[in-house]
Amino acid sequence: MRTDGGLFDQIAAGPELLAATGDAAWLQAMLDAEAALASAQADAGIVPAGAAASVAAACRAEAFDAATIGARARLGGNPVIPLVAALRAAVPKGARDWVHHGATSQDILDTAAMLVIQRSLHVVDGDLAALAGACAALAERHRRTVMAARTLLQHALPTTFGLKAAGWLVAVVKARRGLTEAPLPLQLGGAAGTLASLGPRGLEVADAMACRLGLAAPLLPWHTNRLPVAEVACRLGMAAGVAAKIATDVALLMQSEVAEASEPAAPGRGGSSTLPQKRNPVGCVAALAAARHAHALVGLVLAGMAQEHERAAGAWQAEWQALTDLLRAAGGAIARTREVVAGLEVDPARMRANLDADGGLLLAERVTLALAQRVGYAEARGAVETAVAQAQGAGATFASALRACTPFTESEIRELLDASSYLGAGDAMIDRALAAFHQGA
């Protein structure tokens, strides 16, 4: 397991998320599971109340050394075994027999994983909420900021930057909802998933333990049914993908030849080690790199779903580090994208200049549809294609070519080539996106 941040970890993930996924967080989550197990069994009359209280009092991560636990984990193959031994040594003698009573290592580690995910998603959710708010603000502020829509990286039709931001917003809101709705269940099944060691009170203990930890009570133990982990992994991957789409758009808008938007400026931000003039899209780059890591880790988790009978031989063990890294990668991608969008510098004049640079060719569809009402679509398409070819050659504008190739009057051509009046349902779409955001905020 990782510490709270190293040479590369802090480029994407922030300190709060690093702490939520660090060694101390994992240790505390395992200890919280042990404390809740003892307390739930005390509620059921299985463990003496005094012993459960002693166990709970000793379950403090600062009392244990993660490096020592990790080194000793080599012998048993997981950190729960040495942690339980250390916990037993830390409680009064009369309580030692009740430490980890009725549980298996996977019960504690899976429950701890759900707690680490739950606590980490609290951080990630805050960043998603802030990212959604920043997208909403851009959608409202720039609903009339006309720009070129691009398909296959080429100018296509006029759109608005507000509609682009509204598209970001809808995706962020859906990704956020998916993460908050993912169920995080307790794990408690004992050595083979039967809870035999707890007798007839096993399910009662599991339900009470889940309640104490704020986790869902599972229908059955899920030792080799990894859907709970896989679902969270996939939703994290999708959220990272949403962040990556936004980061990609901003990075493309920052290209020197486009220059329609820029990441927030700050001393030293985006600088080059050799080129003083550069302002690199460092936030976008960090988000995109983190998203790639996240997507690779999702594949690792999914590949581990095929497990042997009642306990896995390697696939489960591969999840521990993967979950830590996945939370950091996906959360980091979201956090860096939130930072970029919240401080995004938009240049409406440059957007308009780029839109106008082709002399109205973005309105060729509009001209074709208007002309088709008079001469039919096939003839209209041919006439407009001829006008486009002339405009793309030397010595002609699209407007002048339309005068020669179509029956439109001068005023009709001016109206047809007015980009701001060919935006379709864009404004209504922005209203829909903002309404959905405000309803769920």
Q: Can you walk through the features of this model?
A:
- By secondary structure, the protein is mainly alpha-helical.
- It has two domains: 9-350, Up-down Bundle (Fumarase C, Chain A, domain 2); 360-416.
- It has 17 helices and four strands.
- It has helices at 15-20, 23-43, 49-58, 66-76, 80-90, 105-141, 161-181, 202-213, 227-253, 282-303, 315-342, 348-356, 364-375, 377-392, 398-405, 410-416, 426-440, and strands spanning 146-151, 154-160, 261-262, 345-346.
- A two-stranded antiparallel ribbon has the order 1-2. A two-stranded antiparallel sheet has the order 3-4.
- Strand 1 (146-151) and strand 2 (154-160) form a beta hairpin.
- The longest helix has 37 residues, at 105-141.
- The chain is elongated and about 100 Å long.
- The two termini are 35 Å apart.
Offer a concise description of the structure.
This protein is mainly alpha-helical and 441 residues long. It has helices at residues 15-20, 23-43, 49-58, 66-76, 80-90, 105-141, 161-181, 202-213, 227-253, 282-303, 315-342, 348-356, 364-375, 377-392, 398-405, 410-416, 426-440; strands spanning 146-151, 154-160, 261-262, 345-346. It is elongated and about 100 Å long.
SS-based class? mainly alpha
Total beta strand runs: 4
N to C succession of SSEs: HHHHHHEEHHHEHHEHHHHHH
Give the uncertain stretches in residue-range form.
none
Overall pLDDT confidence = 94
Query: Order of strands side by side in the largest beta sheet?
Result: 1-2
**Architecture per CATH nomenclature, i.e. the level-2 architecture of the largest domain:** Up-down Bundle
What's the CATH H-level superfamily name of the largest domain?
Fumarase/aspartase (Central domain)
Question: How much helix, percentage-wise, in residues?
Answer: 55-70%
Strand content: under 5%
Q: How many structural units, i.e. domains?
A: 2
Which fold name fills CATH's third level, the topology of the largest domain?
Fumarase C, Chain A, domain 2
CATH class of the largest domain: Mainly Alpha
**Over all CA atoms, what is the radius of gyration?**
29 Å
> What coarse outline follows from CA principal-axis ratios?
elongated
The description of the largest β-sheet is: 2 strands, antiparallel
- Terminal Cα separation, in Å? 35 Å
